[in-house]
User: Fold this.
Amino acid sequence: MAEYCFGVDLGGTTVKIGLFTSEGKLIDSQEIPTRKEDEGSHILSDICEAIDAKLVDRKMTRDDLIGVGIGIPGPITKDGSVLGCVNLGWGIFNVEEKLSQMLGGVKVKAGNDANVAALGETWQGGGRGFEDIVLVTLGTGVGGGIIIGGKIIPGSNGAAGEIGHIPAVVGRDAEVCGCGKKGCLETVASATGIVRETKKLLAKSEDDSSLRKKKELTCKDIFDAAKEGDKLALKAVDKLTFALGKSIAGIAAVTNPQVIVIGGGVSKAGKFLLDKIEEYFNEYAFHATKNVKFALATLGNDAGMYGAAALILD
Amino acid sequence: MAEYCFGVDLGGTTVKIGLFTSEGKLIDSQEIPTRKEDEGSHILSDICEAIDAKLVDRKMTRDDLIGVGIGIPGPITKDGSVLGCVNLGWGIFNVEEKLSQMLGGVKVKAGNDANVAALGETWQGGGRGFEDIVLVTLGTGVGGGIIIGGKIIPGSNGAAGEIGHIPAVVGRDAEVCGCGKKGCLETVASATGIVRETKKLLAKSEDDSSLRKKKELTCKDIFDAAKEGDKLALKAVDKLTFALGKSIAGIAAVTNPQVIVIGGGVSKAGKFLLDKIEEYFNEYAFHATKNVKFALATLGNDAGMYGAAALILD
Assistant:
């Protein structure tokens, strides 16, 4: 009887491949490089090879598989077609059909990587036990995923959960975002954003701050200084948490989730960060949405593998 | 064979009851008063009486009914329980079970009225032909509904689509909302909001404006004056459309709908309003969400009846 599945997190640099039991236990994982040459044409065959080798290694066959789930770094349609993944070199094709064919008919389900990570956190991570969750990923940029009734909300063209591009800052203070617009949440609430905002604060004022000694200012430096009471660092953190708390209040007014899960590198600041976001959330949130819980993501870089497995085991 | 259904829109003043064919054609409708006395205990029996009378009138029986859908002015759980409707005098009970029992076992489905109206507009109104829509209702307040894959997103406690309470204005300019918070979208984008903002503009400036002659300033007066080029009226309209366009860009980054349907009394300003909202939307929207269409709601006060019927016919 088929009792296992693979969860594949296909990234721009590496592919993470996890072997899961049908109960969602990760029993084996490996990483292979993402070969982007020749328009990414080796990527799927590399994945197949790794899967088959793992099966041999485990004395299993393809018949032991319920299926293979895969998260893709780009928009994907409901029928499993990728609409071009610039950073893989891929054009437009149905990745579910193609990978399934290459694996001799094993069931394949694909999803957008950020949404799949949100599903992973819902299934086995910080959102475990809930079915309506919003994942907010604070990394180099700001991403996210919306899960309702335990299912990913992909959006009409795969762009739901693009939380980083909620307009958050207007007026003179708004910085240009990577997407070309001004004042997106990402410009203030990402690791990159808080570093830039802190540099602006340092340049504008002459206030004493332990951050002035740092050569290469990082997001971690800023949070560490803020935790020790550095006023300028606290000001920078306040800008981030204000924008996030207010934006999350808006998201809650739209989707009314049970839990907000905060992940990504910035979330390593932990409860200190969570409490400050929640404070601003409570200031701006509609009363009927206020009983939402705030939690930290727990799966880290494995969320994508877990979510990909969840696509299949659902 | 059962080929008909009733769609019931239960409001605080009147109950609208529509008889629909299974294809969604409204063939008969009536209104009865909402009797709120005795903790609203007559409301459901009045509805049953009206339904049974209509069936006799049409030479039909309860066996001809696929079911009865009903929109309720308050939060409702997934299993059909109302959690208290202050303006009906209702406490907590399962309205689906109770109404079904009173109708001798006819299937009953209930939903929140704003969400049900959004479903109606999706099914037979301004969102027809789409399955991922956001309805924005600009009336005395600002309401809304989120439909994804043709289904209502109710939210974990019935508060999804509370678009009017997205934080939209910060700082000194933010007015207190009916919900108790400051700067909600509703404070600037409702009929009440634009009248207040216009009065503020009139008081602050000495600019000439045709609106100064009005004794009782209305939302319609303001839009009429703006259409004729009145600068002060245009400024007021600009404040409304800026807040709406920016907030809708945020909603689109979260849910990525195919179409935004604008309804409610303010939407009588028509294409003039729509174009201005769309202009600000395009300024703030993430590129992958920009191909969304803007449409006007078409069902007016019947949207609730249509949506209630859709709950059953789905």
Remarks:
- Chain A has a mean pLDDT of 94.
- Chain A touches chain B through 45 residues (CB under 8 Å).
